[in-house]
Amino acid sequence: MSKAALLFLAIVLVGANVAIYHFGREHGAASPVVVAQSPSAVVATHAVSPGPTPVQKPAASAPIAPATTDTRTTPPVATAPIAAGEGTLTIPVQGVTSAQLRDTFSEARSEGRVHEALDIMAPRGTPVLAVADGTVEKLFTSVPGGLTIYQFEPTGRYAYYYAHLDRYANGLQEKKAIRRGEVIGYVGSTGNADPSAPHLHFAIFELGPERQWWKGTAINPYPVFTRPQ
Q1: Please, what sign has the CA dihedral across residues 184, 154, 150, 229?
Q2: Model-level pTM?
């Protein structure tokens, strides 16, 4: 193609563009300009960029109570002495059972007295046993009781009285600690007892605050010896 033809073609194109420009101005519309975009650019334009990954706070755990030591003290179980109304006593004559006992506590005696004791019949020389742990408070010889023993149990609340003994056990003396079931003497008939009917006269006394061995309130031993085990 000659230069003249090319020049002519260029003039025609410029004129066409000018005409199109003025036509758009007159009708208030601009020619749309289409910008070609690559597929990757389109994807990039519409892709949603993920936001920062939220940091999840750890789930709140239940507060752990501090370890504590239970300072409450369980009250100790009371260990009442083996005494009248508070437990069972050993029958004080060796070989005698509760079925052989007879309640003589309320029986009348000479001079209008009430017996206030338990007579336990047994052959002379039968061992007499301590009914409970305790201490020999007094060894005493009296006109009515003959050869006697006064024993205090550990709390000093009760006294146990053994009378009409034939003799004491060897080595027995005042203030000596004795154990339940220990031989402390032997059945006899000293004092005002009938020589033909040897027996142990046994009594329980609840002592007053003075803790005097010769004075106290008599308690019937029979229910103590015969209560169910």
Answers
A1: negative
A2: 0.62
